[in-house]
From TrEMBL:
InterPro entries, A to Z: Homeodomain-like_sf, HTH_TetR, Tet_transcr_reg_TetR-rel_C_sf, TetR_C
Top-level taxonomy: Bacteria, Bacillati, Actinomycetota, Actinomycetes, Streptosporangiales
DNA-binding residue intervals: 11-30
Record's keyword annotation contains Secreted: no
Name listed for the protein in its UniProt record: TetR family transcriptional regulator
Entry keywords, A to Z: DNA-binding, Transcription, Transcription regulation
Length: 180
């Protein structure tokens, strides 16, 4: 329901109706809709970390291959949803961060944690001579995440994978190129 209608657009009545539970169940489990928002962000990120573990944290692949594998895995998930719902973390960042300090803080914590495996891959790629990092790895990781989120936003608007393909093509040909 939150994916389809957005966090603000999904009412508690609609959420409980879609879940097939009485509305009172919501208030028994969550002190507020904001608490529910925190829970869905946490659960979404926990699921996303399974992709991170299978790709970015895979020691059997060279660092740049791990980055490519991550973007491929996420692209496959987005394709399964018809290129329309995007990333819940990105969606909540756009929608709820301005209205909920608790959600904004949690999203900041998530982005801080999320960039770490990217930064490790970038450091390893630099050490292996696959790329040359001229900026701190954490800054480059933040740049990649922000650029990727922007590509996902365009993908949602266009209902097409082209923005994701363009992100990959340009990123690996320029920013993550051995000659960059």
């Amino acid at each position: 329901m939150v994916r389809r209608r957005g966090f603000a657009g999904a009412g508690v009545r609609e959420i409980t109706g879609a879940a097939g539970v009485p509305q009172g169940s919501f208030t028994n489990h969550f002190a507020s809709k904001e608490a529910f928002g925190l829970e869905i962000v946490d659960r979404y990120f926990a699921d996303l970390l399974t992709v991170v573990d299978a790709t970015l944290e895979d020691p059997g692949r060279p660092p740049l291959d791990r980055l490519r594998a991550y973007f491929d895995a996420i692209s496959e998930r987005l394709e399964e949803r018809g290129w329309q719902h995007g990333c819940l973390i990105g969606n909540m960042s756009l929608e709820a961060a301005e209205h909920s300090e608790a959600i904004r803080v949690r999203l900041t914590e998530i982005f801080t944690r999320w960039r770490e495996p990217f930064a490790r891959c970038l450091r390893e790629a630099d050490a292996a001579g696959q790329i040359r990092l001229d900026v701190p790895a954490l800054d480059m990781a933040d740049f990649l995440l922000a650029s990727w989120q922007g590509a996902i936003l365009r993908m949602k608007v266009e209902r097409s994978p082209e923005a994701l393909r363009r992100f990959r093509r340009i990123t690996f040909a320029t920013v993550l190129s051995p000659s960059a």
